[in-house]
UniProtKB/TrEMBL annotation:
Pfam families: Cas_VVA1548. This is CRISPR-associated protein Csx16. The lineage of its organism: Bacteria, Pseudomonadati, Pseudomonadota, Gammaproteobacteria, Alteromonadales. It comes from Shewanella decolorationis. InterPro entries: CRISPR-assoc_prot_Csx16.
Amino acid sequence: MNKRIWLVSRHPGAQTWLKQQGFQGQQIAHLDIDTIAAGDIIIGSLPIHMVVALTLKNAEYWHLSMTIPECWRGTELTPEQMQLCQIKLQKITAQAEDFF
């Protein structure tokens, strides 16, 4: 099985930060779940329903997590600002049950 690494972000600061950390992979702005195979590694900030879908495909998801102050929300952050926001990667798995 060939593991592929997908770096999912439309934000230049996040793309640069990931490169600075030594992550290499396919850089994309949006993820098409149908392109993901078991064993693939996805790094980004995805909505929970997509994380569930990745878990069901036996792919690995690493969430780009940080605490952004209100005054910086909605702006493009530099890698240096992201460091100030305590950026980190967290491995996430998820499952869902339908209620309705």
